[in-house]
């Protein structure tokens, strides 16, 4: 029986939706999605539950005291003793989820990476008095970022994001600018409608022979030697280009409009250290 038409309950259904019944009150139910929502009338109406971090994936409710619960999300875990009115902090746990990391040759060397449902970050490998969460800083792109730079002089950091977003971060000015290959965000399009099909983790790499040469991959490999002011296609479509896999992503309940399910993409790129190009 359909009791609610609230679209929030089924957003990104292919990726996550968890439903939890309150073990004490049969009329109370929680649904976990990008937000966390709660119903106290058997699922007919829902209100949002404020949590420290989005993309909520798991919930434990004390079987005898429904005021006590633990929420797990893309930022870590939080405890509530008042039914979700307030939560414990996430700044006491090393729970970032890194897709990959890169390092430069400075002393101390710096570590770079993109962290799930957070920003890209960089940090020195050593600090006076230790390293804390305050020592991290973003370097452009977003959660799914590859990071590329000259390891000997990482003034400019090239960092990516989903659907072809790529930026250049300048360490001297702490400024960031968009240098996308094609100035269109293909949100909610079919794969076959996109000029370039980008993986959620679209590769961005610097040439080991000339670090000012940056490669970026979709279904086609492109290259810039001008800090992203101009890009040159240097390959044909390197995928199978299977049309039956280029429909709307995320179905059949909702369209995955954020680029999490795009097929026919280049997943990894590396330039030979022995031969340029």
From TrEMBL:
Gene3D superfamilies: YVTN repeat-like/Quinoprotein amine dehydrogenase. Residues 233-255 are annotated as: Disordered. Residues 238-247 have a biased composition (Basic and acidic residues). This is Sortilin N-terminal domain-containing protein.
């Amino acid at each position: 029986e359909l009791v609610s038409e609230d679209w929030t309950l089924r957003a990104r259904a292919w990726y996550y939706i968890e439903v939890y019944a309150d073990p004490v009150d049969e009329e109370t139910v929680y649904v976990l999605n990008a937000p966390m929502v709660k119903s106290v009338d058997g699922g007919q109406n829902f209100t949002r539950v404020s949590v420290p971090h989005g993309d909520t994936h798991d919930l434990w409710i004390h079987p005898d005291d429904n005021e006590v619960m633990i929420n797990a999300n893309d930022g870590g875990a939080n405890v509530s003793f008042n039914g979700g009115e307030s939560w414990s902090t996430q700044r006491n746990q090393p729970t970032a989820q890194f897709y990959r990391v890169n390092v430069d040759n400075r002393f101390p060397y710096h570590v770079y990476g993109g962290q799930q449902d957070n920003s890209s970050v960089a940090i020195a490998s050593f600090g006076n008095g230790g390293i804390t969460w305050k020592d991290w800083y973003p370097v452009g792109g977003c959660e799914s970022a590859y990071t590329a730079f000259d390891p000997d002089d990482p003034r400019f950091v090239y960092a990516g994001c989903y659907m072809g977003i790529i930026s250049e971060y300048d360490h001297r000015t702490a400024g960031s600018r968009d240098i996308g290959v094609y100035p269109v965000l293909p949100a909610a399009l079919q794969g076959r409608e996109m000029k370039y099909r980008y993986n959620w983790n679209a590769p961005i790499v610097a040439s080991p022979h000339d670090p000012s040469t940056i490669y970026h991959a979709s279904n086609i490999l492109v290259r810039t030697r001008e800090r992203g002011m101009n890009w040159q296609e240097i390959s044909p479509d390197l995928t199978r280009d299977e049309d039956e896999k280029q429909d709307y992503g995320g179905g059949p309940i909702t369209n995955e409009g954020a680029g999490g399910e795009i097929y026919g993409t280049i997943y990894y790129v590396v330039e030979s250290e022995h031969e340029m190009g």
